[in-house]
Amino acid sequence: MKLTHIPLDQLKASTLNVRKKGGKDVSELAASIRSLGLLQPLLVRKNCEGFDIIAGQRRYNALTLLSKEGAFADAVPCMEMENGDDAAAIEASLAENIARLPMDEIDQYKAFSAMRRESVPVPDIAAKFGVTERLVEQRLAIANIISPILNAYRRDDIRPETLRTLTMATPKQQKAWWNMHQSEDEHAPTGRALRDWLFGGEQIPVSNALFDVATYDGAIMSDLFGEEQYFADASLFWTFQNGAIGDKRNAYLEAGWSDVVVLDIGHHFAPWNHEKTSKKKGGKVFITVSRDGEVSFHEGWLSLCELKQRAKAQEAVDDGDTPTTEKPERSELTAAMRNYLGLHRHAAVRTELLSHPALALRLSVAHIIAGSSLWKVEAEGQRPHNDAIGKSLASAKASETFAIEQNAVRALLGLQDEEDDSSTGSIARSRSSFGVRPSVADIFETLMGMMDEEVMRVLTLVMAETLAAHTDMVDILGEVLAIDMKRWWTPDNVFLDLLRDKQALIEIVREVAGENTADAHVGSTAKVQKKIIADCLSGEGRTKVENWIPRYMQFPATAYLGGPINAARPETDQSEAEHYGIADAA
């Protein structure tokens, strides 16, 4: 930038100046300039006919007023900006105007929106101008408002809180509200009544149906004073609507879209946190469903976070670098669910190992040679993620069967009458926990008096006790032993409670209840989907599914969505995973 003096008639307000309303009352500023002169230069940028004012419109208005009065005739001191930097120009204008006379929400929206078009991300906009990211996102949400409502707001016909609530409405709902606002016979709801009108009503307009209404066999109500009709049975409507949403989702996938994301009912799609991306470049389809049943399709979008990751990967390729590791794909399972699955699978594998002493002997030799995290020697603690998982594990058939064998081997070694707590828990202990238990020489003397078969029985149990949970060896042994988890585990409420991924849930519904039921409940809540699974397993109201085992419990284990079972968790979960001994597996 450079300081220059420009005649007043060569200056004009720029389209990039973010103030569109206010700033016209400049009498006090004009008096100050008349008395003290212009203390701060205008910020301008050259155009083909003169100069655009980027920052300083109120000073320009005051100088124009003084010029008409004959009190100012000099050239105006200006800081001239370089061409080609629209984002910087908008920032300069917004920075000045936020600190001065307050702009209304529409001016702020247009300014922030212009910067987003220049690819300035929301956090950067907020940081540059000292406002919160939430404020920026609130202003960007005004993009959803139809023009008549925006114009009415600028005329002060609509209060700010009403405008803000309407940002959550669909265009169709906004048009309906605007018609009521214009009507002499109807009252447009505001405040809490407006929120209830948008989200809390049970009346679902027939026009919101995504399916063929002719196939709907429920009652339909008609408004005697209007043209709209409504579904009398909301529950039946959602059965048909969810099925139609599922069909639409499948059609998008068949058409070649990389992914179709069905958002929870009432969840809004935030375009300011996404960027338009074509199907060819991996754009996704986002489907939103309002509480009154209206379905909207947002085709060709990717989140800014995903775009940033792609850009980094492409930059590495362009630079000729070969990334040593890619960011691990996020698992569809939580740390708690992986803990639950790992412990139950581990319990089954080590119990089955009891019947294969020759395999245990070879496994012991491998541990002696290679070592492991447990061969100190100490037993696997089987630490549950929470009390519910602990109770589930304790009541499992595999745990009960294993405990019986522990007591029998403890009797062989003569440990059941010790005064310390050796009559309970594992045979294998770490050195620090032996206390006054028999020494190695004492145990050796006992073993010398045993038959080979009894010694092998002890060795097999100790190997099973020291088999680490959440490791590849559990999976390998599960496949070698061809373990059928139906012998050792049955689905319980803890398993259902720990299911979190909605797309995985609907695939499990598809597995136990069939294609039609799954497609009909694509948009249902996780609670409804889990109830369907539970009913299929118990036979309550649905055909009972016998001996069902989820893919997670099988050997080998597989995911429902094609991703990894033990993918790395976000950094916030990593310490938890390490605490429960599953960080390496993740």
What is the number of E strands?
12
Class from secondary-structure proportions: alpha/beta
Largest sheet: 5 strands, mixed
Q: How much strand content do the residues show?
A: 5-15%
Helix share of residues? 40-55%
Q: What Rg, in angstroms, do the CA atoms define? A: 35 Å
Overall geometric form: elongated
Sheet with most strands: strand arrangement: 1-5-3-4-2
Mean pLDDT: 80
User: What is the straight-line distance between the termini?
Assistant: 53 Å
> What is the count of DSSP helices, taking H or I runs of 4+ residues?
24
Q: Which blocks of ≥5 consecutive residues have pLDDT under 50?
A: 97-102, 417-424, 430-436, 567-586
Describe the protein.
The chain is α/β, with parallel strands linked by helices. Among the domains are: 2-144, Alpha-Beta Complex (Conserved hypothetical protein from pyrococcus furiosus pfu- 392566-001, ParB domain), CATH 3.90.1530; 242-318, no CATH class; 335-487, no CATH class. It is 47% helix and 9% strand.
Keywords:
586 residues, five-stranded mixed sheet, 12 strands, Conserved hypothetical protein from pyrococcus furiosus pfu- 392566-001, ParB domain, single chain
Q: Layout of SSEs?
A:
Elements: E1 2-6, E2 11-13, H1 27-36, E3 42-46, E4 51-55, H2 57-68, E5 76-81, H3 86-99, H4 105-117, H5 122-129, H6 133-140, H7 147-154, H8 160-166, H9 171-182, H10 191-200, E6 204-205, E7 220-222, E8 229-231, H11 234-254, E9 260-262, E10 274-276, E11 284-289, E12 295-303, H12 304-318, H13 335-353, H14 357-370, H15 387-394, H16 397-412, H17 440-448, H18 452-465, H19 472-480, H20 493-498, H21 502-513, H22 515-520, H23 526-538, H24 571-579
Parallel strand pairs: 2-4, 3-5, 9-11
Antiparallel strand pairs: 1-5, 3-4, 6-8, 7-8, 10-12, 11-12
Helix pairs in contact: 1-2, 3-4, 4-6, 5-6, 13-16, 13-18, 13-19, 14-18, 16-18, 21-23
